[in-house]
Amino acid sequence: MITQLPPTKRLFFRLPNAEDLAAYTAYCASPRAGFVGGPYNDVQAFEKLATMIGYWSLRGFGRFVFATHNTGRPIGHMGALQLCVTEPVEMTWTIRLEDDEGQGYATEACSAYLAMARQSLPPLLARIHPDNTASQRLAERLGGTCDTGAIAPLWLPTAVTYAM
Predict the structure, then answer these.
(1) What is the crossing angle of helices 133-141 and 105-120, to 10°?
(2) Predicted structure pTM score
(3) What is the pLDDT of residues 86-131, one digit of tens each?
(4) Mapped to the 3 state alphabet, what secondary structure does 38-107 carry?
(5) CA-CA distances (angstroms) from residue 98 to 27, 32, 94?
(6) Is 160 left (phi over 0), alpha (psi -120 to 50) or beta?
(7) Nearest to 156, CA basis, from 121, 122, 123, 132
(8) Of the N and C termini of the chain, which has fewer Cβ atoms inside 10 Å?
(9) Distance CA 35, CA 31 (A)
(10) Angle 111-53-8 (CA atoms, 0-180°, nearest 5)?
């Protein structure tokens, strides 16, 4: 299983932790969380981060926080998610602040993760809100192909699914 990722040119990766709570709560309360079912209140944000932290213990894989070498500031998180063992494993990613979009951070982080994931995880899917065209373009840059026959999850019945 993937438990660590080597750094890339601009980014390093770490497991999520309690120090992420304030920034993660701010992201969850913002309109940016709308593509993943939000915005969320403080309690929901806490529960989502606690799930992200505990995920590693329960599944043996999960999502990493990625941050820049030059500032150490977390930019977002990415990695595999499987909330129900009867569902396929999903590739997820989030850029927390709009100012960090368009700089290739998500592409760099997800590419590093996928290179390792393809060695130890089953094929991944990316389920994307139909209005989130930036994430759909990212899925395509990462080599994902749109799977028009995929069954959407109950939590996002209109999802556009990419085989990664």
Answers:
(1) 50
(2) 0.93
(3) 889 999 999 999 999 999 999 999 999 999 998 889 999 999 999 9
(4) CCCCHHHHHHHHHHHHHHHHHHCCCEEEEEECCCCCEEEEEEEECCCCCCCCEEEEEECCHHHCCCCHHH
(5) 10, 8, 11
(6) beta
(7) 132
(8) N
(9) 8
(10) 25
